[in-house]
Structure formats: structure tokens, C-alpha cells
Amino acid sequence: MRHPHRYALTLVGLTLAGAPLADNTVQEVIVEGDAAEHTPMAGTEQGEYRFNRDYLDAYRDADGGLDSLYRQVPGIQFSEDALETESLEDLSPSSISISGGRFYQNAVQLDGLNIGNRLDPAGGADGIDDVGGHELGLFLDTDLLESVRVLDSNVPVEYGRFTGGVVDLETRRAGAEPEGAVFYNTTRSDWVHYKRIQPTVEPGQPISEAPSSDPEFRRDRFGAHYSLPVGELSGLILSASQASSRAPTESLGRVYNLEQTNQNLMGKFSTAVNVTGELDASVTYAPYEREALIRNARDSRHEFHGGGLSSQVRLMLPGRYFRHQVEAGVSYVENRREAPLDYFQWANSPSRQWGSENGLEQSLQGGYGNLDKYQMTSRARWIGELPPLFLGEVAVDRRLGLELNHQRLRFDRPQDLYVFTNPVVNTDIQCRGLDYDCLQEEQYFSTREVYAGEDVEVGLTEAAAFTDATFHWDRYQVTAGLRYDYDDFLRNHNVAPRLSGSVDAFDNGATVLTAGANRYYGGALLTYKMRQARTPYATEYRGATQNVVNDWTTGNDQGLYRYGDTDLDTPYSDELSLGLRQRLLGGVLEAKLVQRDNQDEFAQTVSDVMADGYRVYRLNNDGESEYKGVSLAYYRAFGDRTNLGFTVTYSEQETSNADYDDPANPGSNSHVSYQGERVTLASLNRVRGNFDRPWVANLNLSHRFAPRWSGRVNVRYRGDYDTVESTGQVVDGEPIITDGDDNAYEQLAVYERAERHATLISDLGVTWRPLAALSLEAEIRNAFNARTYTVPENFGGVELGRYFWLGARYRL
């Protein structure tokens, strides 16, 4: 027999089981129950971790992110840029890998509507055809959320089109009593200890030195929410928040103050329907803006606009044969750039010498022009839950579901864009009045890429049907399900079986063994459909004859390219899992093994020059990868003061290709120099190792020291791994064939292999409540000033040491 524990747990100033606090007092409420029920795994199947609003308050990050919660889930790894100095000013959420999946292969839902970004989700860098996007379409502040569910294995049939994991976000609902809060958090460069790392290199090797000054920035976050009942059966909640950062960036000897802003506005109405039914209707508006420039390029300052709108309606309604769950929603996401038109890579010369004045090998100028990319999504889903069926001693829960999605993507470049590369210095050159891309008696460009102005729109329709049944018998529980998916791009009929089961070893809930065998199909690559519809860029060359510049002509040495159609299978992931959940010392211990075999993953192939003068780039299903992860997790509440969580994961991964653009998407920067060889930049992803550290461990501890004081600690370990880094050097590549007398060579950036050492980083948080409604908060991140090793061996740079966040929250 399980014996209940008596506890009243307060975390970071929040009484989880208490009543509202009176003025100048902290009221402690004793709750009878099992402390193990108050963990992220309470009442869930193996593979699911649920964090309610109490956890969100107890472990909330001052920057409004979810990192503190994600660290409590075994099998999640963060992108390495989460520790870089730029992360302090970057308002975008951290990218995560779940169970070895690529960061853009997760399904992230808000109130049932997928908010993933299909606008080239793996192409997050600012580029010619990309607008510095993110795998998420909306950047959400945790103050909007009521709960977070993370599923890393044994994912139910209602979730599809992913081969990583699932993050299910639910926005707040209004309660029976009025409630609200206002908050403010801030940090700045004066509160950061930067660690300046100088390289140690062998004589004769190039030196990458640390910058001459520390980064500077200021970051603020503020907001409010308020909920109130409307009548006896309804409620309304309104929420608004804004995060902003301002960071001076040095470029060509000048300092530019670049700003980022992310806003969240949310309204949600909830009401009871027919006594036992529920209706939720919500609208979330989350625009994002960012100023940027191309480093060390004159006249390159530009703006990005992202984010968008999401609106959902959810109805839970009992019926004669089913308990209905009906969901419908629409969303709009944009990635838009406003930038100077045309980009020039000038050689240093008398009239183009800002590069040499700043110790650079070229004088860069301009930008990639205006570009608008947007994604419109509409979705409807119905889930019907049948009454339990009894077959002797076996109880059967049954569900059916249907889903229909339609999505449209648009790519709009209003003007032709020219990218000028490979300049030829010639002090006798005659430009014939063509002074836009030629300098009289100085230099001219031998190569340019032409990107046509165009407005292209493509659509995708997806349909799904699913069903599952859960059998309960004695100490055993088995869930068997099927999910069917179809889309009108790949045109495949995909059937994914899902099977999981558990056995309560001693029929007392103390020891539960779990196992699962599941298949997950990924989604159609709508980005590729967009590429097929767009006009290919053209490469043009010119030379000089007797020192007179020639006209531009289309080159035939490499050929133009276009994207071709092909018959593709849908990528899928086969998963096997084994697990043990054991109630131990008042907590829950979980040991788990997850194995993923990913097949038919998208890769890219390129043809020889065809009869029409084009090279054809086609997707294929030659990609594959494997993941094996073993994890151990323990969660426990100790009495009425302390809460503990510990996870450790060991994983191994192998992959045949970096992403769907391996080999690299063709362009001026598609090749680099790596260890003396000319290779594609995308091929280097195979040894970069991001999201692929063998050992990852996290310890979370919170404690209430006194009625008005509480604190928390997070200690995280990341094992060492190899990566590839740019040295900042440029070397000559292959010769470029022109129609003139001069010799021209492509310019290749130099990359080298580097080792990232293991890290051990500790964060501290403390909350003081001088008044019942007022909380003052402080976070000390990297409290012991440890190295992050974001600057690899033999490189110079700046790393984050200890830094602070301060904040205040007032309950209304």
C-alpha cells in the first residue's frame, strides 16, 4: 500500500498547493498526497513529460523562454549557439533536437494548431533566397502558456508529420476568480563577465584573435495578463508582452545600434457548453522585427520582419455515440526583408579601400534586396471518443479522428537581384561608361549571379485519418493505433502503426515496465515545391579584351540549374523503446532506451549539364540516419521545501547527409576550403556535430529557505565533441573561364576542424517576496564563470561567463 506524503511545496516564491496569500503573510497549506504525483511524469505514459502552470512559474526563465523546462526532459539537446554571446541579444527561441531528430523535424503545436515554419526551415541564415527564418513561425512568451507537453517516444496517433518529437503548447484559460500579473525583467552587457580567449597556434599557422572590445547590449522583457469570469460559465483572458534588445555592432570602424523586438498579444474566451462541454476560442498575434547588417559591408543595413497570427477554436462536446473534440484554426507567418539592392565583393583599390583600411581582403558593399516569404495555413481536426467497451474483464477505450490541412507559400522578389563576385584588378581597364560594376582603371567584376524578380505561390493539401484502442486488463495496458496520411505533393499513401504497452509489475503502481514500437512519417517538403516553381538563377561572366571590358554573357562551364520533379517516398522513422518507471524514495525514477531508424530521408543529387544547358537538382530518398539513446531521470519533492530533478542521457547518432540540401544549394558560397580541399559547405555539417554530444546531464534543485525566500539551481553537463569552424581566411579556388585576357579565381572561405571541450555550467535563481503580491527575482547564469567552449581550440574569441538577470512581478 502506498502511503501518502504530507507536503506544501513552494518553488521560486510560488505555493503550488496553497491558497492566495494574504498581505504580509505567506500561507502554508498542507496537502495529503503522494509527492511522486507532482512530477513531470505524473499520470503520463513513458515518453511524455507534462509541465503545468505551477512548473512554468517555478522554473520560468527571465527571458520568457522554455529552456529550463526542456532541460528537465532526457533526450533533448540544444543547439550550440544557445551558449554564444549573441544569444543574449537574440530573441528567437533556442533550437532543440528531440530523440536525435533534426531541429526542424519536430511538431510544435499551439492549442492544436501547428506553428512550425516551412519557409526553408533548415536555411535559418540570412542569405540571397532566405530571410533568416526559424523552425518556429511564432516566438511565444511563457507567460501566455498554461501547460507544455513534450513527447519524445510512443507518440499517440493524433500527432503526425514529424520524425523528431512533439511539443504541445496550451495557452492560459480564465479561472473562476479574477487574476492577473504584471512583470519586468532585464539584463545588459554591464552585468556580463566576458571571457576573452586568445588562440594558441603553431608557428606559421593563421591566427584568429579575440575582438578588441567586449560585446555590448541591453535586453528587456515586460508584460501583463489578466483573466476574469464572464457570467457563471465563461471566462476571458487577455495577455500582452514585449521583449526587446539593443546591441551595438561594429562594422568598418563604425558602431551601429541594432534592435530586435518580439511582441505577444493573446485573447482567449472560454465557456461551458451543455453543462459538460467546453469551448475555447483564442487569437495570438506575435510579430517579430530585427535590424541587421552584413558584417564589414558598406551600405548593407536592413530589416527583417517575421512572426504572424494564429487563431484557433476548440469545442469539446458530448454526443450520443462520441465525445467530440473539434478543432479549427488559421495562421499566417511571414519572413520579410527590406534591404539595399545588389551586392558587390569589390577588391581593395583606390576608390574601394574601406576593406584595406579595416584589415580586410575585400571591400564589400550592398545587400540582397527586398524579399517577402509568407505561409498561410488552415486546419480542421475531429477526434471522437467512444464510450468504454467491456470484453469480459478487458476494458477498451476507442478513438477515431480525421484531419485536413491546407497551406500556401509565397515567394515575392520585386526586382532582379545581382550578386557581383570575383573581381579582377586591372589598372588599365576601360569601363565604357559601365560604372555600376566596373571602376575605370581600377577593377571590374568577372562574375555575377542574376536572381530574377518574381512572385510565385504554391499550395499543399494534407489529409489524415487515425484510430487507436487502449486495452486495460488486470495489470496490463496496451494501446494499438494506426495513422493514415496523404498529401498532394508527394502523393503517397502512408500508414503508420503505433503500438505501446505497459505492465504494473506488482499491481501497486510502484514498478511499471513499458515498451513501444512505432512508425512516424515526416511531412512533405513544401520548400522544394516552391523551388521547383521559381525561376533558376543564372551565372554570367565577362572578361576584357585589350583592357576594354566585355559584355556579360551566360557561362557554359558549369551550366545553369533548375529543380526537377521526381517520384519520392515520404521519410519515416521506426522507433523501438523500452522503459522502467519506479517509485523510489518518494519520487519517480525512469530508465529508458529509445532507438530510431530513419529511412528515405531527403537528400539532393545533381545531374551533368543537360542538352538544354541546365543542371538539374533533384531530391532523392538516399538519406538515412540512426539514433540510440539511453537515459535516466529522477524527480522528487522532499517534504515541503525542496524539489529535485535529475536527468542523464548517453546517445549515439549516425547520418548519411546533413539535410535536404546536401550537396549544398548551388550559389556563390556553395564551396569552401577545408583542410586544403575544395568541398561543399553543406558537406561539413557531417562533422560539425551540433545536437550530437554523447553525454548530456542536468540537475535541477529548488528550495524554500524561508516563507519569503526561495531559490533554484540548474547544473548541466555537456560532453566534448568535434566541430568545424571558419578561420576568417580566404584563398583562391579554381580558375574561372572568361572570354577575356585576364585570369580570375573563385574565392573560398577557409574552414578547419576544431574540438569542443566538455562544459559544466550552473545557473542560480532567487526570489524574495517583500509583499504578498510582489516578487523580486534574480538569476545568476553561469554562476561559477565556467568556460562554454563556444570558442574552439586554436581560435580566438569571446565567451560568456557569469551574467545576471533582474526582475519584478506584481500579482493583481
Mean pLDDT: 84
CATH topology: Maltoporin, Chain A
CATH architecture: Beta Barrel
Number of domains: 1
Uncertain residue segments: 1-33, 204-208, 663-669
Beta-strand segment tally: 50
Estimated radius of gyration:
28 Å
The proportion of residues forming helix, as a percent range, comes to under 10%
CATH class: Mainly Beta
Supply the CATH superfamily name: TonB-dependent receptor, beta-barrel domain
What general outline do the C-alpha atoms trace?
A: globular
Largest sheet geometry: 22 strands, antiparallel, barrel
Cα distance spanning the termini: 43 Å
Strand content: over 45%
Structural class: mainly beta
- Total of helices: 5
Keywords: Cell outer membrane, Membrane, Receptor, Signal, Transmembrane, Transmembrane beta strand, Transport
Main location: membrane
Signal peptide: 1-22
Protein name: TonB-dependent receptor plug
Walk me through the structure.
The chain has a 22-stranded antiparallel β-barrel. Strands 18, 21, 22, 26, 27, 28, 33 and 36 form an eight-stranded mixed sheet that branches. It contains five helices and 50 strands. 3% of the residues lie in helices and 56% in strands. The radius of gyration is 28 Å and the shape is globular. The protein has one domain: Maltoporin, Chain A. The protein is mainly β.
